[in-house]
Backbone:
């Protein structure tokens, strides 16, 4: 767990970013006829990134839902810098943006493993929602998780 | 509503097949780097086919689920004859195989609209399942639907 | 073809927006276990929107590629306002943002057909790229297309 | 590398089956509103299985395509035994059916890692196709690969 270097062009990754690294391989079903990964699939890799970030801090997203809290996506963004091809391995770095209150914002950076080139950057925003679909304040167990992430940063 | 001509190589479409025609266009996100539609996406078109077949007989699949009955897929099969490309329009023909008891079997044929060439054939099988996930006999409203399809054939 | 009303919270839809309306239905394969359409699938609907916008002005995206010009996605964004459910019909409105030079920016708005509620808004950005993957100025046939869209607005 | 136990209900896995094991986790984007993985996504896991099988024998599918040979899917089949849920880990076993001549048939078995229950079984068939899309006999390097798989079984 190390802070991501500053200087991102998307958002202020700031001094309190902590991240998880996960690798994903581009399968044939991810590619399109241009020969590259189809842009919508990057959001699947983002999902894998934030899921593994939460898991690495001891709380799976599945367990969060089992406690009656849901984190639907309220905004998703991705900037694509270089195309990624079939069978390439991606390193998905995911950070929790702790400047956000009342919800979660995850930041993502994808690098190509073979040459460490930056492939894409993006973010997703997530309010806390209860079982009836109402936006709620993050319950204590989530505040504890966020504090834990900060302490380990 | 007319019976499909016999002679299918997949299964006995027989004398009691009734069908629905729906068209779908291949989008970029459906293609893979070979330039053709990725094989797994055909099962999405099959889903569209059976959904529109049910709707054309007055009962949406959504309404079936709202009555507490689910039709999960227990088997899926597709034979691919010619590749289909980006922006091609497919005609999805869907039939209900009424030789099957205790569940549903849908048969599918995909033609390319531009030249009417047969692109693929397949089928899916669906048991009737209740809200607890147990396989049950088709309830009366589904038997009525099947009878209605037969009468109109 | 009518301009979209102003007041979007995403970007200046301005006075020169021209748009295409296309409808899409949410299939089972689009939903996730929350019961709503998975957020990544919205970018497939965006693709359908911009493809049909171009087609409505007489030039399919396929034809553009056949002339050796590609419009890959350099940025994609979506804000999700209300969840959309299985079997809902979406109205996809797509506009060309003509304040952008040297490439294309498409803006999208999704409404639920049943009650006309705004479901989501987003945009995608696309540089013009040639067959070798190099960014190029839009060739004359694309400038003509843009002019045609402006004239009809 | 050990032979799969006999007794499959789909096909004769026989005495000459050799297999690769790969694990995949079910992500949110794989699920549908029934709460289970959508049936079409299993074919993505099958793709991962056969790709890793080939790679484990020293030849990536990407390298096969770079030699001008393509293995498109001519038939795909899956039988679904128990539903698989969000965040479950699947073990994908893939075998090469060496009773098939003139092409490839891969057999797949998916188990749930947590309790080793059989989730699904299936197969895909693949002719050898050259760059012009014509079916050809498997070239020597593929025959060598098949022989290598047999020898190691």
Residues:
């Amino acid at each position: 767990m190390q802070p991501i270097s500053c200087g991102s062009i998307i958002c202020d990754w700031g001094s309190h970013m902590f991240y998880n690294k996960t690798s994903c391989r581009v399968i044939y079903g991810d590619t399109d006829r241009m020969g590259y990964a189809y842009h919508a699939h990057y959001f699947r890799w983002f999902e894998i990134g934030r899921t593994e970030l939460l898991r690495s801090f001891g709380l799976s997203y599945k367990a969060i839902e089992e406690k009656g809290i849901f984190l639907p996506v309220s905004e998703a963004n991705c900037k694509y810098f270089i195309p990624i091809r079939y069978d390439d391995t991606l390193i998905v770095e995911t950070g929790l943006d702790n400047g956000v209150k009342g919800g979660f914002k995850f930041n993502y950076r994808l690098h190509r493993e073979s040459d460490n080139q930056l492939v894409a950057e993006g973010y997703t925003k997530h309010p806390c929602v209860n079982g009836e679909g109402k936006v709620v304040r993050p319950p204590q167990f989530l505040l504890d998780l966020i504090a834990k992430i900060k302490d380990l940063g």
User: Anything to note?
Assistant: Chain B is about 20% helix and 25% strand. Chain B touches chain A at residues 28-29, 31-36, 38, 40, 85-86 (CB under 8 Å). The longest strand of chain B covers residues 103-112. The helical segments of chain B are 42-56, 61-66, 140-152.
